[in-house]
Specification:
mainly alpha, 430 residues
Length: 430
C-alpha cells in the first residue's frame, strides 16, 4: 500500500514539467516560424535572383530541409514526435514550399510597368503633313533666296559650293554635338566611300548644272524643263543596265516631252545656257539614280540621312575645285560688287541662309519619303513644282504666256501619270 501511495503521489509530480516542456517547445517553434517568415521578406529579392538562375538552389530551398530535419531529429532524440512536433515540421515545410513557389513565379513572370507608347492615326497624319509643309516651305524659300542672290552675285559655281559647304558644316556640328543620327551616323570604310563617290559626284555635277540654269532663266522654266528627268532615267536604265521600261510607262513620257516643248517655246526668258543647264542636270541626276541602284545595295545599315550627309561632303570635294577653276579669277571682284550692291551683312546672310535652305529642304524630302509610299511622294513632288512655279511668278513678277502655262500644266500632269504607272509596274514585278 505504501508503494502504491508513493507511485500515486509521484506521478502527478512528473506531469507538470512534461506539460511545461511541451508548452515551451511549442512557443519556441512558433517563434522560429515567425522569424522564418520575417526573414522571407528580407531575402525575397536575393531569393528571386537565385531562383531565376538555372541549377542554383535558393536559400529557402536549402533552409527548409534543415529546419524540418532539425525538428524531426529533436523529436527522435527526445524519443517522441507527438502531434505538436508533427504540426511544426509540416508547417515549416509548407512555408518553405510556398515561398519557393512565390519566388519562382516572381522570377518567371516579371511585371512590366512601362507605359506603352500611344500613337493614333491622326497624330501620324499630322506629323506627315508637318514634314510635307516644311519641305514645301523650305524649298520655296531656297528657290526665292537663291534667285535673289544670283541677281547680285551671278556666280553659280561658287554658290553651288556654298550650298554643300554650309550643309557639310551643319552635319559636322551635329555629329560633334552627339546628334549622330541627324548627320553622318557612323564612319565608313574606304570601300563604302568608293561606292558612294560615283553617285555623289553625279549629284554634285547635277547641282551645279541646275544652278547654271537658275542663274540664267526664270525659275518656272528651269522647273518645267526638269520634269524631263524621268525620260533620262528610263533611257539610261535601258542603255546601262538593260532594263526595259513597259510601254504604258513610256507612253506617259509623251505628254511630259510635249508639255516641256510648249513651255520652252513660249517662255520669254528662254536662253540656251538656262535650257542646257536644266537638261544637263536631268542627265546627271538620271546617272545618279542608275549608279545608286547598282552600288547602294550593300549600304543597308546606313540611313538615308547619313547617306545624304556623306553625299554632301563628297559634293563639296567635287564642287570646290571646279568653282576655283571656273570662277576663281573673278570671284573677289564679283563678291565686292555684291557687297556694294546689298551690303556685306546681307551678302553673307544670303550665302548662309541659301546653304541652310538647300540642305534642310533635301533633308525634309528624305523624311517625307520615309513616311509615305512612293506614289504619294511623287504626287507631292509634282505639287511642289507647281507651288514653286506659282510663288516665283508672284514674287519676281514674271510674265507667263498662255502657251507656257498650258505647256507647264501638261508636263506636270504627265509627270504625275508617269509616277503612278511606274509604281504600279514595280508593285506587279514584286
Amino acid at each position: 500500500g505504501g508503494g502504491a501511495t508513493q507511485r500515486t503521489t509521484r506521478a502527478p509530480a512528473e506531469l507538470p514539467p512534461r506539460a511545461t516542456d511541451r508548452g515551451r517547445e511549442r512557443e519556441r517553434d512558433q517563434a522560429k516560424r515567425g522569424r522564418m517568415m520575417a526573414a522571407t521578406v528580407g531575402r525575397s529579392s536575393r531569393g528571386a535572383s537565385l531562383a531565376a538562375r538555372p541549377g542554383v538552389r535558393s536559400h529557402s530551398a536549402r533552409a527548409a530541409p534543415r529546419k524540418h530535419s532539425s525538428i524531426a531529429a529533436r523529436a527522435t532524440r527526445d524519443g517522441r514526435r507527438g502531434p505538436d512536433l508533427d504540426h511544426a515540421a509540416a508547417a515549416a515545410t509548407g512555408h518553405a514550399q510556398l515561398r519557393a513557389v512565390v519566388i519562382a513565379r516572381a522570377s518567371s513572370e516579371p511585371i512590366d510597368v512601362t507605359p506603352a507608347p500611344v500613337s493614333s492615326p491622326m497624330q501620324e497624319r499630322l506629323v506627315t503633313a508637318g514634314f510635307i509643309a516644311l519641305w514645301y516651305a523650305v524649298n520655296v524659300a531656297f528657290n526665292l533666296t537663291n534667285k535673289s542672290l544670283f541677281k547680285h552675285f551671278p556666280y553659280p559655281w561658287t554658290v553651288s559650293t556654298v550650298h554643300v559647304l554650309v550643309g557639310t558644316i551643319y552635319c559636322a556640328l551635329a555629329y560633334v554635338l552627339g546628334a549622330k543620327s541627324a548627320s553622318f551616323g557612323r564612319p565608313i570604310t574606304k570601300k563604302e566611300l568608293g561606292m558612294i563617290f560615283a553617285p555623289a559626284s553625279m549629284h554634285a555635277l547635277g547641282h551645279i548644272a541646275a544652278n547654271l540654269s537658275f542663274a540664267a532663266v526664270a525659275i518656272s522654266l528651269t522647273h518645267t524643263v526638269k520634269t524631263l528627268e524621268p525620260v533620262f532615267s528610263a533611257s539610261l536604265q535601258w542603255l546601262l543596265m538593260g532594263q526595259a521600261t513597259p510601254l504604258p510607262v513610256l507612253l506617259s513620257l509623251v505628254p511630259i516631252i510635249g508639255g516641256v516643248g510648249m513651255a520652252v517655246c513660249g517662255d520669254l526668258t528662254f536662253n540656251l545656257m538656262g535650257f542646257s543647264g536644266a537638261m544637263i542636270s536631268n542627265l546627271t541626276f538620271g546617272l545618279r539614280a542608275v549608279l545608286s541602284k547598282k552600288t547602294m545595295g550593300a549600304l543597308k545599315d546606313l540611313s538615308s540621312t547619313s547617306l545624304y550627309a556623306y553625299t554632301t561632303l563628297i559634293s563639296l570635294l567635287v564642287c570646290a575645285p571646279l568653282a576655283l577653276i571656273v570662277e576663281g579669277p573673278t570671284l573677289v571682284s564679283g563678291a565686292q560688287a555684291a557687297i556694294e550692291s546689298i551690303g556685306a551683312r546681307n551678302f553673307y546672310l544670303y550665302l548662309v541662309a541659301v546653304g541652310m535652305f538647300y540642305h534642310l529642304y533635301n533633308q525634309f524630302a528624305f523624311n517625307t519619303l520615309a513616311r509615305v509610299n512612293p506614289v504619294s511622294h511623287g504626287v507631292c513632288n509634282v505639287v511642289k513644282r507647281i507651288i514653286i512655279i506659282g510663288t516665283s511668278v508672284l514674287f519676281f513678277g514674271n510674265i507667263l504666256t498662255r502657251q507656257t502655262i498650258v505647256g507647264t500644266a501638261i508636263a506636270l500632269a504627265g509627270t504625275a501619270l508617269y509616277t503612278e504607272l511606274q509604281n504600279k509596274n514595280k508593285a506587279k514585278s514584286k
